[in-house]
Design a protein that fits this description.
alpha/beta; 6-stranded mixed β-sheet; about 25% strand; 9 helices; about 260 residues
Length: about 260
Amino acid sequence: MTTDAVLSIRSVSKTFGSRRALDGVSLDVARGEMVALIGPSGSGKSTLLRSVDGLQTIDSGPGVIEAFGEKVQAKGRLSDKVRDARIRIGFIAQQFNLVGRLSLFTNVALGSLGRITFLQGVLGRWPKETQAAAMQALHRVGVSDYAGQRANTLSGGQQQRGAIARALVQRAKIVLADEPVASLDPVSARKVMDILRDLNRKDGLTVIVTLHQVDYALKYCDRVVALKAGKKVYDGPASELHKPKLIEIYGPEFEDVFWEGAPT
């Protein structure tokens, strides 16, 4: 693992039945990078993020995933250090993963559960530090006016910004965002991507975001990693990801929907 890397993935494979979702993927991510993970549906993007967070185990064998210099999992088994790693890894899902019946404030305050007692969390007896952090995070992402509103009454974009605020309260050092804008309208999607980029540039958070929208990947991320059929087929600057390579990744049909602003 390189000295400035916060995440190291080595020879990671994952098989579901007869399908190999990941096939010997290796990747280092340095502190403060914002990396787009792209590829066709079923290429292994979400599987890779879930493996990094320890939400699923990788295949037995040589595969190793490390975060902050500690093993998350290896050889098909989670490490006893996985909980420590998860505390510093914020996971933002496509479907927001907020508790609909709870207020937006409570959902965001839940990000502090790794630092307060279980009873405090269950009873909602949030320490003043947590209360202040939750409101500050909600203000940072632009939804503090909805703090007292039930999460399931908010728009998708508002809920997704709440999920980002929860990661801030968690004090995450790495944010894994799995298709965070896939179910959002274009305006809300841009707001969410703007927030992620702002957190990366101003706060130095390491961000890995899976995207189906190639134009967003090229616009917001300096580095792009592409997967195809579980294998890494591109890893480099967004500025060098040209049209022929994108067609190779996605197939000839991609040319029909190619974003005009991409490099040629």
